[in-house]
Amino acid sequence: MTGVKKSGAAKAQPERVDGRRERSRSSHRRIVEAMMELIVGGDLAPSAARVAEEAGIGLRTVFRHFDDMDSLYAEITATITERVMPIVSAPYADQHWRANIDELVRRRVRVFETTLPFRLAANIKRYQSPFLMGQYSKVVMLERELILRLLPGDVLTDRIGVEALCATLSFQNWRALRHDQGLPAEEAATVVGHMVAALLSTMKGGKA
User: Fold this and answer.
1) Which region holds residue 56: left if phi is over 0, alpha if psi is between -120 and 50, else beta?
2) DSSP string computed for 127-176
3) Phi, psi (5° rounding) for residue 145?
4) Nearest Cα to 141, choosing from 174, 101, 121, 171?
5) How confident is the model over 118-163, as pLDDT tens digits?
């Protein structure tokens, strides 16, 4: 009988451990989802207490999973990156560079619209957050590099035109159109396309 009891206890212990792990994973997931839902809903700087309330858990549980808000922003950044990288990193067709720039515009619109609320939220906090400031610098450099890769050598010599193109295709321009000017996404996309076409027509080496 004693041996049977020990066997049962030994079996129950891993089950309790697995149950705790599952509850922990569930809480972790709920915290991240709550933060993202609050940001999408317009609360661009939710407090830890607000996240806990939205997730339906205690404030202590939030800080058990995330040492500070930066670690929570890091988790959200990873989630958003996973969503948009297939768009960003997809290969371009073997076609004229102008057609690839047109494709880049379409990709930027999709990526910027997907990330808009999260990047607005990050902009609020990045001056107090080394992590968010570092991420901002990395993303700006990547977005610039993705443009430069598509431009032929004679166009790249037009430094002012290239800088104007990078500014036109920047998130800051998209934010101004969508957030400051209040344009719907479709109209903002049309404006960006018009700006890019006008720029390319005046750039050195950019004429068809």
Assistant:
1) left
2) GG-HHHHHHHHHHHHHHHHHHHTTS-HHHHT-HHHHHHHHHHTSHHHHHI
3) -60, -35
4) 171
5) 999 999 989 988 899 999 999 999 999 999 999 999 999 999 999 9
